[in-house]
Specification:
With about 400 residues, this protein is an alpha/beta fold. The chain folds into two domains: about 40-255, TIM Barrel, CATH 3.20.20; about 270-360, Lyase, Ornithine Decarboxylase, Chain A, domain 1 (Beta Barrel), CATH 2.40.37. The chain has helices spanning about 15, 40-55, 65-70, 75-80, 95-100, 120-125, 135-145, 165-180, 200-215, 230-235, 255-260, 370-375, 380-385; strands at about 35-40, 60-65, 85-90, 110, 125-130, 150-155, 185, 225, 245, 270-280, 285, 290-295, 300-305, 320-325, 325-330, 340-345, 355-360, 390-395. The strands form three sheets. Strands 1, 10, 13, 14, 15, 16, 17 and 18 form an eight-stranded mixed β-sheet that branches. An eight-stranded parallel β-sheet has the order 8-7-6-5-4-3-2-9. Strand 5 (about 125-130), helix 7 and strand 6 (about 150-155) form a beta-alpha-beta unit. About 40% of the residues are buried. The structure holds pyridoxal-5'-phosphate. The site of pyridoxal-5'-phosphate has 10 residues, from loops.
Length: about 400
Amino acid sequence: MRSAGWPNRDWPNDERQVNEQHLEPLIRHPEGRALRAEVDLGRIGRNLERIRAAAGGREVWGVVKANAYGHGAVPVSRALAAAGAHGLAVSSLEEGLELRRGGITAPVLVLGGLRPEALPAASSEGLSIAVVGPEHLAEYARILPDHPVQLHLKLDTGMGRFGLLPSELGDCLVALRLLAPWIKGVMGHFATADDPDQGFALRQRRVFEGCIAQLADAGIQPSQRHHGNSDACLRNLLDQDTHLRPGLALFGLTTLPEGRQLGLEPALALVAEVARVKTVPAGTTVGYGRTFVAPQPMQIATLACGYADGYRRDLGNRGVVGFAGQTFPVVGRVSMDYLTVALPLGAQVAPGDPMTLFSADPTAPHSIERLSQVLATIPYELTCALHRRISRRYFP
Ligand SMILES: Cc1ncc(COP(=O)(O)O)c(C=O)c1O
């Protein structure tokens, strides 16, 4: 029986190997499903430049976890490295390996920590690792001389998730001194950088600086320090940090007015071709549960995109799509692979016509930001959910 939680030393080896499956490539065909995410890599590069310039030219760890927030980890990482990112940050060993197998040679930092047993794999792939707790420090010190890995010491300055608590730091200093030759950076993470009330964020900063001073007193002086996610960069909560760690803003998405003022450009549009269009009389019901009843004769276009692709089911009867400069409502329930759009009788629409489900214009009613407001969620959730079965088309 597998027990819940991490770390878990009781997994049989064959069960761990099952994890390899998700690295298998998907089968694609040029004439296959007419659904694509169009990703503008030039915009991602320009967003990086804007964020860096606004932050006094500090170096950037570009956060590309979760398949670069759904945009495609390898192409985005390549673009970020070409645009001057210092390195890329991912959440897991697997995500780091994906970048290396994709030919990314820039520094890669695994934010989610690693079991000591995984250090040799990280070492041979040149991955850097966040140390996320006090549990494995002695084992790390035993393994690292043979399998060197650069470490970033994560401090829990108030996020309450990963990281050494300030109260734990004193007891760990002896073990950390042994790790000092490998400790390249010290890092934290904000819980409320988007909050107009900066009280808690400033407290986190003070805790961070206090821990850094304590480390320095013990002779541990990492050359890198980074606490700032996108919103901290946009709100200038950076203090003495040498590096930034933005994710969302790189993709031109932001919930802050400061982000738009900086000229961040959304990089992703989700486009589906009309698979079928039909004219229906008044009273026709559409989709599971018959939640939409045509109030008058109209056209119903079916698109091959559903909740399995990451288009949220609760956008049924609430979302809109863009077509020929206008927007039209998503009607009926969104199903696993399809959704339906209502158009007036006169609209010129035919199978193969492209409709925009997520617009890269931040002011459009079907922009990722606006749709996430409709759903009372955050843009991250919409883009991260974009399934790998959606083909990605990249523009330089
Ligand atoms: C540890 C860490 N750093 C940085 C980021 C980037 O955050 P954001 O996308 O808000 O810039 C994340 C994202 O969740 C994170 O978990």
